[in-house]
Amino acid sequence: MSAARPLTWRMFASSRGITIGLALLFAFYGAAQVVGYRATYPTVADRIGLTASFGNSPALRLFYGEPRNLLTTQGYAAWRVGGTLALLVALFGIVLSVRDLRGEEDSGRMEVVLAGLTTRRGVLTCGWLAAALGMAVVCLSLFVTLVVTRLPVGGSAYLSLVLTLCGLCFVAIGSVVSQVMPTRRSAYSVAMPVFGVLFLLRVAADTRSGLGWLRWTTPLGWAEEAHPFTGSRPAALIPSILLIVTLGTIAALLVTRRDVGTGILQVRDRAEPHLRLMSSPAAQTVRIESLTLASWVIGVGAMAFVIGSLATSFSEASFPASLRQELHKLGLTNLVTPTGYLAFVMLIFALIISLGMAQQVGAARREEADQRLETLLAVPLSRIRWLGGRIGLAVALALALSIEAGLLAWAGAWVAGGDVPLGGLIEAGLNCAPAALLFLGLSVLAFGFTPRIASFAGYGLIAAAFAWDVVGDVVSAPTWALDLSPFRHLGLVPVHAFPFRAAAIMTAIGVVTAGAGAAGFRRRDQEGP
Amino acid sequence: MPTSTQPTDDIAVRATALTKHYGRTHALEALDLAVRRGEVYGFLGPNGAGKTTTIRLTLGLHRPTSGTVEVFGIDAWADPVAAHRRLAYVSGEPALWPSLTVAETLEFLGRLRQGRHRDRTYEQVLLDRFQLETDRKVRSLSKGNRQKVQLVAALSAQADLLLLDEPTSGLDPLMEVAFRNTIGEAKAGGATVFLSSHILSEVESLCDRVGILRDGRLVDEGTLDQLRHLAFQTVEGTFAGPPPDVSHVPGVQHVAVDGGTLRVEVSGDLAPLLQALSSQDIVTLRTREPSLEEIFLHHYTGQAE
């Protein structure tokens, strides 16, 4: 198949922005964790202290998984690096496969390819190869970083392999979903909840005693069970390989049993007219994006509910004395209560809702790139009114998700028999909104001046800020540098008072940058793809 | 038409020294253009000549590098909303929302026009004429059918100016006839039509005046008669003996000799050529005005060499 190489390359190159961004993030994050660990915990005593304190914190297990050995740099890297990056490779796998295998068809470009000598299975294979290549680049970047920071070559390669396989599991999931669902949007709205469920299974396994076996039900758990750097267990990779082969076979069977341009499930060609949500561009956006918006609402709600229900297992007695002491020193006594735990964990929603803002600006940009905006702006509709509608919708989404996160975290705790304050948790939820509004403003600014990279800039800034917040401490960066990350300015609400000043400043920056972005958008050419 | 009560300038679209550069690409160079109110203006040019750029500037979607373009005296870049109240647009690449049906799309675009009256009766006439099924989702429509949706939306908006960018590139010949009839109706109703096209027969049958664009410059403009007159004529003669050599005669080009038959194109005054031809024994002599296609090809092939 002579067409295979250019097609694979084309698909790989179309995702080069996100691939390079992620490769840099992996290198930066991996290096910072390893170097930071050595600097912060130089002696065995320090490391025993770490194991007894933060290593046992369920709040951290939520994100990093179960620590196996925090006495060595390798064990720490396996936990902090492997645990977090497994989530990122999973999301990356879904994005790559849906882009290559559904997005390309949705755009109509695949018809041109399939009219040539390439078969459907050929296109599928090229999509897989391109996704595997992207995954390999990202994991290779981590491998090189770990080796450069003087971790053993064999173990570093094994950790990178574990992450690659984990990512490929989600490529396989995405490739089956892409055969079944008829559009890019509907493919995401199925694949992302699948990821959510698999993530929650891992969370339950890592944070609740007696549920450890649940790790075997999710590719994210298999990556943990492979025990990178801590007595490797390659047998735990077998389920990943079996899943990839099985789902790959299913996708290859399905691809020849459907029409090109649609999925096994088909959208209806006809419908009775529904004239609701037609009165303005913003209303029409709600209608067009309803599936995406619903995914955000359901995803954030489910996650908040689960996090809330986990909070009840917290009481002062369940924390080791050493952790209590450390928290006392930090003035965080209240953190060892369910409310304190939620105050800490709720901060993750600041990240998630910020990503939602970047997604919304990305959707606005897609409207322009696909030239539907040209159709809109040719009627008497001002650019500012159109963009204002999109921004207004994003702000409403940010506020709704923030309040929802607080409300459902409270509901989860309440259902599990906990006693946490409803008002306080809604405050904790709203505490996430200013950072999201700040990133919304920055994304709009990018859209106004550099539309072609707006989406990349939005996600990139959020990822960089979050990574800096996580690793900045570990590398002992100066305070002013740490303060650059908006995530640093979120208070531990409701344990501490709502940080009105920081919230006002972040919101103000969001408003100013969005305004500047709108002014740029008003004065620039409409830009196609 | 509602605007006939509003006496303004006689010009619907006026471009003044309109220039647009995209980086190093010079898409449009100092274009001067005036489309008169009520006329059908054909805008001709091959791919990449700058037709779509002109239309995007007229819509205020892109910003002129220099120069201005006005729609009924309103600056298209400075006040696009006011300009758009007077016009309706059909793009060559119909970009609509795949999940909406035809009826929903028309409703949405209609509501965005707010105060502007949407003629639902005429809309139904057009839907029947173009054989559009309103319950079909845009996703399931062919390019030609999506183009028809745009045409129906634009034509039922009762706009004073129709900006049409290769509006029939996806239509079949039957629909092409329906399109021509519809444009005739719009003109009869007093609308101005700016039709960018490279379908010459369409322009020839519809347009009052024609502008020919090449490499971002207007190289010729006028009514069809003017273009024919100004351009060149084909002169064909048969001779008893060998035809005379006329290649040095002023205004003569494209000389073709086939036995006793001579065919030349001549622009400007015919007298020097006739004088040269009469030096030999003429059997027959015919002159013919060029078709629009010949004028068009003349502008492109003739000067490109």
| Sheet having the most strands of chain A | none
- What portion of residues of chain A belong to β-strands? under 5%
What is the 3D shape of chain B? elongated
Helix amount of chain B: 25-40%
The succession of helices and strands of chain B, N to C, reads EEEHEEHEHHHEHEHEEHEEEHEH
What would you give as the CATH superfamily of the largest domain in chain B? P-loop containing nucleotide triphosphate hydrolases
Question: Helical stretch count of chain B?
Answer: 10
Order of helices and strands of chain A: HHHHHHHHHHHHHHHHHHHHHHH
Give me the CATH architecture of the largest domain in chain B, please: 3-Layer(aba) Sandwich
The domain count of chain A comes to 2
**Which residues of chain A sit in consecutive blocks of at least 5 with pLDDT less than 50?**
none
Chain oligomer state: heterodimer
Instruction: List how many beta strands of chain A DSSP finds.
Output: 0
Distance between the termini of chain A: 29 Å
Please give the alpha-carbon distance between the first and last residues of chain B: 48 Å
Major sheet of chain B: order of its strands?
6-7-8-3-9-10
**Greatest interface and its participating residue counts:** A-B, 33 and 43 residues
CATH class of the largest domain in chain B: Alpha Beta
Number of domains of chain B: 2
Tell me what you see in this structure.
Chain A contains 23 helices and no strands. Chain A has 529 residues and is mostly helical. Chain A folds into two domains: 1-263, no CATH class; 277-529, no CATH class. Chain A is globular and about 65 Å long. Helix content of chain B is 32%, strand content 30%. In chain B, helix 3 packs parallel to helix 5 (143-155). Chain B has helices at residues 51-58, 80-84, 102-112, 120-129, 143-155, 173-188, 200-206, 224-231, 271-277, 292-304; strands spanning 11-22, 25-36, 40-44, 66-71, 74-75, 87-90, 161-165, 192-197, 209-214, 217-223, 233-239, 252-258, 261-266, 282-288. With 305 residues, chain B is an alpha/beta fold. Chain B folds into two domains: 2-227, P-loop containing nucleotide triphosphate hydrolases (Rossmann fold, 3-Layer(aba) Sandwich); 233-289, no CATH class. Mean pLDDT of chain B is 88; it is low at 1-7. The chains are: A mainly alpha (529), B alpha/beta (305). At the A-B interface, helix 12 and helix 17 of A face helix 2, strand 6 and helix 3 of B.
